Amino acid sequence: MDDPLSELVRVRLSRNQYRKLSEAAAISGQNLSTYIRHRLAAIDTLAEELSLLRQAVNRLNQISEAHAASIESVLLARALARPEQIAIAHASMKRLGIASFPA
């Protein structure tokens, strides 16, 4: 259950700010106080979601860097491998049901 709304916060707004907020509250079917409370809660939620999104992007960057390093390692190994070694690797991949890169 929500805590009772016992605290009052007074905020000074320009006429234009007050008008915009009042109009938005009316459009949403809320009184101004409820509308502003919901907007403040939404800002907190957006901040949390943005933080989670940044963490996800950082993890994707790490995965991407690891993937790039893996591909580079494979390409270097392939450059050093003899054709018959590549053929053996392709046959093993085929048995596992994994598509191989063309030689």
Notes on the structure:
With about 100 residues, the chain is an all-alpha fold. It has helices spanning about 15-30, 30-80, 85-95. Helix 1 (about 15-30) crosses helix 2 (about 30-80). The model has no long low-confidence stretch (mean pLDDT about 90).
Please provide a brief summary of the model:
With 103 residues, the chain is mainly α. Helices cover 74% and strands 0% of the residues.
Sheet with most strands: none
Helix content: over 70%
Q: Give the termini separation.
A: 65 Å
- As an assembly, this protein is single chain
Order of helix and strand elements from N to C terminus? HHH
Overall geometry: rod-shaped
Radius of gyration: 29 Å
Poorly predicted sequence stretches spanning 5 or more consecutive residues: none
The proportion of strand residues reads under 5%
Tally of contiguous helical segments: 3
Mean pLDDT: 88
The tally of beta strands, per DSSP, is 0
**Secondary-structure-derived class:** mainly alpha
Question: What are its keywords?
Answer:
single chain; 103 residues; mainly alpha; 3 helices
SSE arrangement:
Blueprint lengths: L14 H14 L3 H49 L2 H13 L8
